[in-house]
Amino acid sequence: MEKEKLCVDVDFSTLISGLMAEALAYMGMMDHPSMKGVKKDLKHAQTVINTLGMLKEKTSGNLTQTESKLLEEILHHIRLAYVSAAEKERASADIEKKTGDAE
Asked: Would you say 32 and 38 are in contact if contact means Cβ atoms under 8 Å apart?
């Protein structure tokens, strides 16, 4: 009887795609894979984005053209998503503050 394979082969694209999913989950844009439901935490999302930026810097010149392009596109996408999420959070906080001041 053959043992089931316990781990999945991971390549660079899988790693950065997983980090992108984690960042999006912490921005409240999708369910977090290991938690139930949406758990918004912009500080954690920023840490994941910074990690991807560090990976880009540290792997410069060592990636295939496809890997490099994917990393660049992921960073662009999640940075824009982060700005949008942060703006929504600020707007929500402003509304709550104005509502609290009116009472």
From this structure: yes
